[in-house]
Amino acid sequence: MDVLGPSNFFEAIRRISAAGYEPSLDDIARASTNSHNVQDVLIPRKSAGQRYQYRFINNIGIDSDGNQWVYASDDVSLLIHVVDTTTYDDMIDGNVTNNHFMQALELFQRVCSSRWLAETPVLVLLSNLGELSKKLQNSPIHHSFPDFSGQPHDILHVRRYFRDLYLRVDRKYDMRVWVEFVDSGATAAVGKTVIGIIDKILTEKSLLSYGLQ
Question: Which of 10, 32, 95, 117 has the lowest tally of Cβ within 10 angstroms?
Fold first, then answer.
C-alpha cells in the first residue's frame, strides 16, 4: 500500500520538469521508495497569475545517525518531516519502546536543536491515519509508549498524544512548527492538502519577514 512519503516528489522528475507541464496532485502524493541519495527537483506553481517554483530537496533514507545534511541546511524556507504513524510498534533491536516512530521523533529533536535551522519553520506530517486506526485495535499504543494515559484503541486520543510529543519538542526549542495529520494512501486529496499547508506556511513566513504579522 502506498503511504505519503517525501520521495514521491522525485520519482517522476523528468515528466514533472518538462516544459509546459502542470503537475498533478497525484504526482506529489504517490509512492514511498527509500533512497539514500539526496535528490533535488523544482516543482512549478502558479498563483494569482504569478508563476514560481518550489524547490524540494529529498533526504529520505538518512536516519538520526546520519543526518549531516542538517549542518548544510541553513538556507531552506521550510523543512517537511514526514512520519508514518503506524510505525509506533515497529521495534528496533527487539526493544518494544525503541521503535521507528521514536527514531523519527529523535531526529526531529536534533533538527530543532540545530543552530543551522533555528529560523526555519517545520511542517510535521503524521501520515497513514487509516491504517493506524486499524492497527490500534490489535496493538495497543501503551505497549510501546508506557506514559500514554488515554484510551489505547481510540484514534483521537492517540492523535492528540502524537501531536503533543512533537509540540513538546517545539516548546523546548521555540521554533515555528506545524503538526498536521494526513490520511492513508496516495490520493489527490492528500496532495492538495499538503500543498495547501505549504502555501499557507510560506505565506505566513513572508508576511512575518515584512513585519505584517
Answer: 95
